[in-house]
Amino acid sequence: MGFFDRLANVWKGFLSLWISDIENKNPEAVYESAIEERIKKHRELKKAVSGIVYLRNKTQTELAAKEKEMGEINVQIPVAVEEGEDEAALVLIERRDVLTANIADLRAELTKVSAQADDAKQGLIAFQSEIEKLKREKDEMLAKRANAEARIQIRETLDGLSTDADIKALDNVRESIDKLQAEADVSSEIGEESLDSKLKKIKTKAASASARSKLEEMKRQMAAKKKMAATEVAAGVKKTM
After folding, report:
1. What number does CATH give the domain 3-161?
2. CB atoms within 10 A of CB 117
3. Among residues 19, 80, 93, 105, which one has the fewest Cβ atoms lying within 10 Å of its Cβ?
4. Which residues are CB-contacts of 114 (< 8 A; sequence separation ≥ 6)?
5. φ and ψ at 142, to 5 degrees?
6. Cα–Cα distance, 162 to 10 (Å, whole number)
7. Are 67 and 103 in contact (CB under 8 A)?
8. Nearest to residue 89, comparing CAs of 101, 102, 79?
9. What is the DSSP letter of 26?
10. Are 129 and 99 in contact (CB under 8 A)?
11. Are 30 and 23 in contact (CB under 8 A)?
12. Among 105, 130, 125, which Cα is nearest to 49's?
């Protein structure tokens, strides 16, 4: 095989792949093209069938005319014989013989042509049925394709919602909450270091110290009262003695 032959084969291969790819992506166009092609062939077949039917009808008309003429001649021959018109009778007899042969040929031709016409009509009906079948197939296959594409799209969507995606989403939420908590902690820590916070602490400590001082003073006073009472009791006892 020569270089150009090999190159031609490669090109044909690429062309075939390209066409196949286009056909796979455009199934409706492929079906429409196939249906249109069959409709075109149906028209051509219909013309051929009409030619056969025309020939059959023509043969029937010719046969009917010959048979009618034969009937007339069969009536005329006895009349010619009775009238002694031998020459006319001979001509009529010869014509009858020719008509007999013609009628036999026409009947045979009509039988053959009628069978051809019937077969052609059946073929035409079957071909029309194939076209209708192909149309139904187109609708069914396109619906099946649309359903398959929808199922694939749904599956791809579901696959996209994987566990990893869910975990990532949860991690993002957790991180967001932690950041919000950290922001709140920062606000709290800053609040603790503010002047107002320090003043509040000092005020609280001062109030606590004042209360403690008052408590200690109360304890001293109570101790002093107890001591004074004890002294008075002791002095009374000595005086009695």
Report:
1. 1.10.287
2. 20
3. 19
4. 56
5. -65, -40
6. 44
7. yes
8. 79
9. -
10. no
11. yes
12. 125
